[in-house]
Structure formats: structure tokens, C-alpha cells
Amino acid sequence: MIEILKVLDHGFVRVVDKMGTDSSIVQAARISYGEGTKHSSQDRSLIRYLMRHKHTSPFEMCEIKLHIKMPIFVARQWIRHRTANLNEYSARYSLMPDEFYIPQEKDIALQSLDNKQGRGGALSHAQAREVRTLIEEQSKTAYAAYKQMIEKGTARELARVVLPQNIYTQFYWKCDLHNLLHLIELRSHPTAQFEIREFSNAIEAIVKEWVPITYEAFVDYRKEACLVSGHAKKYLSRNDKCKREELESVFGKTEFIEFDHNWPEE
Ligand SMILES: Cc1cc2nc3c(=O)[nH]c(=O)nc-3n(C[C@H](O)[C@H](O)[C@H](O)COP(=O)(O)OP(=O)(O)OC[C@H]3O[C@@H](n4cnc5c(N)ncnc54)[C@H](O)[C@@H]3O)c2cc1C
To answer: Using a 6 Å cutoff on CB, does residue 261 contact ligand 1?
Structure first.
């Protein structure tokens, strides 16, 4: 059983507590559907049915409590998932440790030209090293200023304001499986930022081991599935009334590029 997974340079995801299994989901669903499913093959079918039809409440019967350590800029994205419960390390009460996320050279890239929110092509080795050094030096300077203020007796709640977003924070975080799968769907997705993806991928590995049948259904119906619009469905079902050229005018440029990526013309 996975107990702790290291993430990035100083981060981790540690399992504190878990409640429920695939069986708890099936058991809860049987309240709705009576005695209909009793064998494990039927359990799998039932879980797939629930996932397929977005009957989500049985998945809320499972919960997980994690101890997570991540850089503050990742935590800012993480806490947007409002349906979890969280208690974070207090930089008013305690000193912030000298731990900063310094990306590896291979993870330093250029601004993407087609996705305003993402990374694009690679920097040269020398440029990536320069960027890494800049981040490292900036982190050291900021921590030195923080330490100086603390040594002068400045309140911790004020001294911390000079610390950059790549410093690490920690929190306990509890979430039910339904909302956890929603987070994984969004944050393990290739369009999510690399650093949050690393944490989401770690939790995904824990979920895969914890509730394997649910995870299998999640991968099939959510992670590897995609939304097909009414027009796309007509075209893909070889409905003669819907021509490929028409899709572009209905969708607009960006949506058509996405469609074309998923279903290139034969
Ligand atoms: C690739 C990507 C880019 C993003 N870019 C930005 C950005 O530029 N700026 C930005 O601000 N955010 C951004 N976000 C964050 C995004 O908008 C969501 O806030 C975040 O992903 C959390 O999603 P959620 O609200 O579905 O999750 P949760 O907060 O976990 O909510 C889960 C579900 O419960 C519902 N819910 C939660 N709380 C309530 C409530 N009080 N009342 C009713 N329903 C509720 C939600 O509608 C949702 O369906 C980005 C997210 C991703 C994945």
C-alpha cells in the first residue's frame, strides 16, 4: 500500500487516513437499486453504470485524508477545489523552513505561443541553467531578508511577506472520492500546469491502488473520454446531413482545431 510519494524537489503526498473501498460504493448504491447486484462482476458493472450515468453520491462514501507538502504557487491552484477540507501550516505561528521549489532544467520551457496559459518549446541548455540560477538566487535573497527580519524580532506574520511563491507550505487535506476524481480529471490533464500535475498524478496512483474498480471506470468514462457535441456526434455517426466543412463554421477555429486533433480526417 502506498503510504508516501515524493513530489518535485521537496514535496510529498502522504496518506494519513482512508475510509471506504469499492465495496462501500456498491453498498451505498444498493440502497437505491435494491438487491440487484451481488457478485463482483456485477459490482464492476454497477460502478461503471454509476460513473457513466453521473450517479455520483455513492462515490462520496469514500474519503481520504492526506498530508501534502507543495510550493505555495501550486497550493494557490489546489485550494480552488472548494469541496475539500484543509488545515495549513501557519507562517504567523511558525518559522517558514528554507525550502524552495527550484525547477529542474528539463522542466524550464518557453512561453507557449498557442496556449496563453502554458509552456511551449524548450530553452537551450545554457538558457535553462541561467533561469534556474535566477530562481535559486532570488529565493536565497528573499530568505536572507526574512531571516534578518526575524532576527530583529519582527513579527513572523509580517516578515513572511518577502517570501516568494516557490517556498513550500504544508497542509492536511481531506476529500471525498467524487470530488477527488474531479480534481484528478482537471489537474492530471495535459493542459494543467506541470507542477500541479505532479501532485495530482501522485494522488492518482494512490486512488488506483485504493479503489481499483472505480479507478478503471474513471479512466474509461472521464480521464480518457471526451465531450462530443451534438454536431460532432452527427458527423461521427456518418450522418450524411452533417459535413466536415460545416463543422468549422459551427465550432469556430479553436474548437475545430481540437476536434481535428481528436478525429483527423481519414
Ligand atoms: C487548466 C486550468 C486553468 C485554470 N485557470 C484559471 C484561471 O486562470 N483563473 C482562475 O481563477 N481559475 C482558474 N482555474 C480554476 C478553475 O476555474 C476552478 O476554480 C478549479 O479548477 C476548481 O474547479 P471546481 O470549481 O469545479 O472544483 P470544486 O471547487 O472542487 O467544486 C467541485 C464542484 O462543486 C461545485 N461547487 C463547489 N462549490 C460550490 C458552491 N459554493 N455552490 C455551488 N456549487 C459549488 C462546482 O461547480 C464544481 O462543479 C483553472 C483550472 C484549470 C484546471
So the answer is: no
Alpha helices in 105-236 (DSSP H): 125-151, 156-159, 177-187, 194-210, 212-218, 230-236
Q: What is the pLDDT of residue 34?
A: 63
The answer to whether residue 187 is catalytic is yes
Q: What is the pTM of this model?
A: 0.93
Mark out the alpha helices in 34-174 (DSSP H runs): 40-52, 72-78, 125-151, 156-159
Q: What is the pLDDT of residue 12?
A: 98
Write down the domain spans for the chain.
Answer: 1-101+166-225, 103-164, 230-262
179 lines ligand 1 (CB under 6 A): yes
Task: Answer yes or no: is the C-beta of 54 below 6 A from any ligand 1 atom.
Answer: no
Q: Yes or no: say if 163 and 95 are a contact pair by the CB < 8 Å rule.
A: no
From residue 46, alpha-carbon distances to 33, 36, 265 in Å are: 10, 10, 36
Which position among 14, 44, 160, 187 bears the catalytic label? 187
May I ask the CATH architecture of the domain 1-101+166-225? 2-Layer Sandwich (3.30)
Dihedral (C-alpha) 147, 148, 152, 156: value to the nearest 10 degrees?
-40
The closest residue, in CA terms, to atom 27 on ligand 1 is: 81
